[in-house]
Amino acid sequence: MIEAHGLTKRYGPKTAVDGIDFTIPPGRVTGFLGPNGAGKSTTMRMIVGLDRPDAGSVLVSGSPYARLRAPLHEVGVLLDAKAVHPGRTAEKHLLALAATHRIPRRRVREVIELTGLETVARKRVGGFSLGMGQRLGIAAAMLGDPRVLILDEPVNGLDPEGVRWVRMLLRHLASEGRTVLLSSHLMSEMAQTADHLIVIGRGRVLADAPVDQVVGAGTTLVRVRTPRPDALTAALPGVQIAVAEDGALEATGATPEQIGDAAARAGIPLHELTTVAGSLEDAYLDLTRDAVEYGSAAIGATR
Ligand SMILES: Nc1ncnc2c1ncn2[C@@H]1O[C@H](COP(=O)(O)OP(=O)(O)OP(=O)(O)O)[C@@H](O)[C@H]1O
Asked: Atom 7, ligand 1: which residue's CA is nearest?
């Protein structure tokens, strides 16, 4: 369990995290989302005592991180996969970490196997690819068999097999009753991995809800194909209708039943009537529209 109360961090005039409250319970994967600069990493750093809050507090398993007696057994953390001495081998890095908690060599071998690093375990970390570095970071987080896992962008740089492996691993760890907090900018991955989402923007919580609820709050379209699009549009006053690239109509603000009934009353044939649920990406972009600090230009808007 991770609990934040009024958690606040300022850097000079900038409020990176602005009095946020949340509870992350065990037994589920909680996704942590937000635009660049929203305050995700700062929050994660405060959870594990790397940054000191200016106000408020955050507790892991009921204690501030600094008071945990055996932190590696309590919290596994992957914040920056590159934060490893490049001259050390993966195995030496893990053995050094293990020594701080009297974790046996056997466990080091186990996490090396678990993360698929057997063939490179005796190679220097400086020569690792991004994906191999991520696997090593996950191995380090798992070393103490912790009850809480905090992973910042763990699938960054992993190949599709690695991405799927992380997804299954995190789901499995949550099903064992552990607390899993995961940040990622990959919406499709988040939709498949997380049960619950906390979305932040400009240091504030914008949503704290199950994934289905966040996706459901986005726009749902009804896609309609008809040989008489103008007549159908006229038969649906007040319904917002756009025309898709393939000529189908995309209606918002009416159910498929309302559209089908209106078409039947007006004698308009329909060749397709489909509900298109919004994606997490759509819902996320809607939610964070006013909280994006580093927005991009629309494609075609610049030369
Ligand atoms: N050490 C620091 N000194 C000054 N400002 C900082 C520092 N760390 C973070 N910030 C600022 O705090 C804000 C939040 O940054 P943070 O890294 O927590 O965002 P984030 O949500 O993790 O972003 P990203 O998705 O880009 O990783 C940003 O405006 C950032 O510039």
From this structure: 11
Instruction: Report d(CA 169, CA 138) in Å as an integer.
Output: 10
How many helices and strands (H and E) does the chain possess? 11, 13
| 3-state secondary structure at position 62 | coil
Domain with CATH 3.30.70.100 in the chain: 219-277
| Domain at 2-209: CATH code | 3.40.50.300
CA of 181 to the centre of ligand 1 (A): 18
Pocket lining for ligand 1, CB < 6 angstroms: 11, 14, 16, 34, 36-42
Render pLDDT for 92-146 as a digit per residue (tens, 0 to 9): 999 999 999 999 999 999 999 999 999 999 999 888 888 889 999 999 999 999 9
Task: Indicate the pTM of the whole model.
Answer: 0.83
189 touches 162 (CB < 8 A): no
Instruction: Give CATH for domain 219-277.
Output: 3.30.70.100
Complex ipTM: 0.96
Strand partners of residue 9: 17
